[in-house]
Every structure is written in structure tokens, then in C-alpha cells.
Amino acid sequence: PQHVRKTDALEKFGLKKGEYILNVGRVVEHKGLHYLIEAFQSIKINKKLVIVGSPAAGQEKYFEGLKKRATGDPNILFLGFQTGEPVKQLFAHAYLYVQPSESEGLAVVVLEAMSFGTAVLVSDIPENLEAIDHVGMRFKNKSVKSLSKQLQDAEDDPEMVKDVAKKLKKWMSEN
Predict the structure, then answer these.
(1) Which of 61, 93, 101, 110 sits at 20 to 30 Å (Cα–Cα) from 2?
(2) Burial (CB count <10 Å: 0-12, 13-18, 19+), residue 105
(3) Measured between alpha carbons, how far is 32 from 99 in angstroms, rounded to an integer?
(4) How does strand 120-123 pair with strand 96-99?
(5) What is d(CA 95, CA 18) in angstroms, rounded to the nearest whole number?
(6) Where would I find the H helices in the chain?
(7) Any residues with CB less than 8 A from the CB of 62 and at least 6 apart, and which?
(8) How far is CA 147 from the centre of its chain?
(9) Which residue did the predictor score with more confidence, 133 or 46?
(10) What 3 state SS string does 55-85 have?
């Protein structure tokens, strides 16, 4: 497990520990960010949605569409490509990491989030379920309704989120 105490990078982004939901990765359509943004905007939540990454070649139009959908919503932040200390702080202090992919290889970024002791919510594709070993939270792939419900449950039940994070941390240290 990785331990990060510093929060200076969060402050630069205008974020507070435990008050945002995170996604990190290349911005490409099959990563399902459109489901995440739509679900996030459909619920009552007192957190920000932070998207870290830049569009892969040929995905600029998709990226622009995501940003357009989020226009005027101060709770959705696109931080672009980040590495090193800033991304470690983002992982370590997120309330929840969400991986809404339609398809994936082994979801290394999910394992990375878990290594910081962050609770994860993933689409129920086999690669994501394998990464969380059925310990994290899941939603039906490509379903905004299912994702919205899980996000709302996570917002309404911080104890459940803490419990999932604890179980994932334990699972990571044992495996």
C-alpha cells in the first residue's frame, strides 16, 4: 500500500481530501466517461467529479463532447494529463475511484487506486471484476441508471465506502 499525506497538489486544483470522485486514464470512448458524467449529473451529490487524462489520437471530438456536456457545471473538473506527486495525491485522497469502461485489458489503474486505499466502483466487465476480486463496488456495464444508483449509494453511505476501502486495502496487502 502507498501512503501519501501531502495535499498541496489538491489545493492547487481547488480540491479537498475525500470530497471528489476520480477517474484517471486516456480519454477514449470505450473508457465510458460519457456514462460517468451523465450519471454524476443525474444525482444529488456534494462532491466534485475529477477527470484526469488527455484524449488519445483520434478521440479529440469525443473529449470535446465530454467537456461540452460538463460546460457550466462547476463540479466537473478536467485536469488534463498528470503524473508524479499530483496524481498520487489525487488517488490517495479521492472519496471514490470510478472505472466505467466498456472494455479493458487488466485495469492497472484500478489496482493503482486500490493500492492507495481508495474505494473503487467499476463496470461489471470481467477484467474489472478480476481486478477488484469482487471486493469493490460494481455497476452494470453501459448502464447510466445502474451507475447513478451506485454513485448515489456511495454518496449517501460514507461508512459503506470506508468499509469497501478497508477491504480492498486488506485484499491488496494479502495479494
Answers:
(1) 101
(2) exposed
(3) 8
(4) parallel
(5) 4
(6) 8-13, 33-41, 60-70, 84-93, 108-115, 126-132, 144-156, 158-174
(7) 27, 28, 29, 55
(8) 12
(9) 46
(10) ECCCCHHHHHHHHHHHCCCCCEEEEECCCHH
Paired strand residues for 20? 48
Closest CA to 44 of 136, 154, 152: 152
> What residue has cell string 486544483?
13
Q: Give the distance from CA 88 to its chain's centroid.
A: 13
What is the CB neighbour count within 10 angstroms for residue 15? 22
Q: Is the confidence at residue 167, as pLDDT, over 70?
A: yes
Q: 67-110: per-residue pLDDT in tens?
A: 999 999 999 999 999 999 999 999 999 999 999 999 988 778 99
